[in-house]
Amino acid sequence: MITGRLGLAGQAVSPGAARGRAFHYRAAEFAAPTAEGGDPALERLRLERALEAARRELRELAGETEARLGAGDAGILEAQEQFLQDPALVESARARIAEGQAAAPAWWQGAQEAAEQVRAIGEEPWLSRADDLLDVGARVVRLLSGEPRRVVGDLSGRVVLARELLASDVLMLARAGAAGLAVSGGSPTSHAAILARSMGLPMVIGLGEALEQVAEGQPVALDGDGGRLDAQPRAAPSGRSRQPLAKPGRAITRDGRAISLWANIASAEGARRAVRAGAEGVGLLRTEFLYLGQGRLPGELEQAAAYAEIAQALGGRPLVIRTLDQSADKRGGATTRQEANPALGLRGIRASLAQPEAFLAQLRAILRAARPSGGDIRITFPLVSTMEQWRAARELVDVARAGLAAQGVDAPPVAVGCMVEVPGLALLADALAAEAELLSLGTNDLAQYLMAADRDDPMVAALGAGPQPALLRLVERVVAAARAAGKPLSICGELAADPALAKLWVGLGLGVLSMEPAAIPAVREAIALLDAREAIRAAEECLRCATVEQVRTALR
Length: 556
Ligand code: PEP
Ligand code: MG
Known about the structure:
Shape: globular
Number of helices: 21
Radius of gyration: 24 Å
Distance between the termini: 38 Å
Bound molecules: phosphoenolpyruvate, magnesium ion
Oligomer: single chain
CATH superfamily of the largest domain: Phosphoenolpyruvate-binding domains
Largest sheet: 9 strands, mixed
Helix content: 40-55%
Structural class: alpha/beta
């Protein structure tokens, strides 16, 4: 246990500063229930009762959260409540009870297995979903064991330190008055982080095992902007310094420029979250979700129904559907091909053009969905490197349309666009913008290929994760090309979700920023503080910078 000065670096996920005494919170370290089963009929009844009690608790909590934070955050708890009715989850617990297990381990094993399965997908919204499954799983186990609702004492002036935090932990800790949250693990897009942001509770994740070294009660300073925890800092008044986030609404700069905030989603649930977060459209539907849990692509009609459900959930807001971005390295894809460098291999549009039948089925499904849903559906293609690929893919949309017409299905017009996420294509943005009806900048891949840095390799990913001057120059070129051709352009990589970069994107002339629904409130808040003319001046300065550090300074 360290009682001297200790500085830990992590990732800031909810801004603000907090000082106070350390409080180690260990609720998430949950002992798996192991009790032997008694009479299966009785255990089954106990399970039903616990599920009902959990439902009541979650409804109550959702009501409180809605009153305090709004419907968007309450939706997290409503989604947890849905798990209590999930037929697969409930059935698996019942089957285990029938085999002789007690209700608590029967339920918990099912919840854990389900969480592991969705976590294996490795990206949002599934990672948050896995946390929610464990959260709701633990709630039912607690109710089965007859434990009272978990509460902690007054945490005013305390900075909470934990290995992991789940959504309900954050709500409870905030209610207890915690000044800030410091987590050794965690994810920036977890529901715990989203709620902390909504409540204006500073939070830093990824502080590592060394967090355990901080002694209980030791004075600490948490920096939710810089992503640090310092133990035994200079004495200062304890507490929190941050205004709560602004209420949802359109993103408007101080001088009245409206910026559209759209969402990146991967499911119908994501569409609902997007609407709750106030997204004006979906700039990126990652259709890889179609593979999930099945290892094969569903049939054309099944796909069409999935897209139509999403379009309906969006209630007429624009929906840009990206055709499959499968690859050997993206989990959830069906490709089994062995490749030495999957990121440079048969992925994205390359894989689709290599399997035209499956690609045509997806295009027909999208065109079919555009019909009954009446939604504003648009198409975009991933990882296009050349104009030849773009044209080949574009032509297949016409082939798909003709195929439907031959079956007597009349598809409405659908705008067809292209992702700009390969530097080679970005350099041809003028040629592309002349032909494509919409463009979207995928900065995750654009940066990966521009900086020669694998976005999934923690040793090098940081190279492509910041506002690299080279990337900005490429983005400027694409913005100019889209503007000259009068084509809509959005930006939908992770960088669009960084509130600290909102000034840059607005200044560079991007009118649509597309991001995880959870990121929308903070970006909206950042835009509300901007002056568009000042942003233009700052962006011009950024374009003259040679280092990321200089860019960040220019944005301050
Ligand atoms: C991107 O590359 O920026 C992008 C949005 O696509 P994905 O993250 O799905 O590769
Ligand atoms: Mg990409």
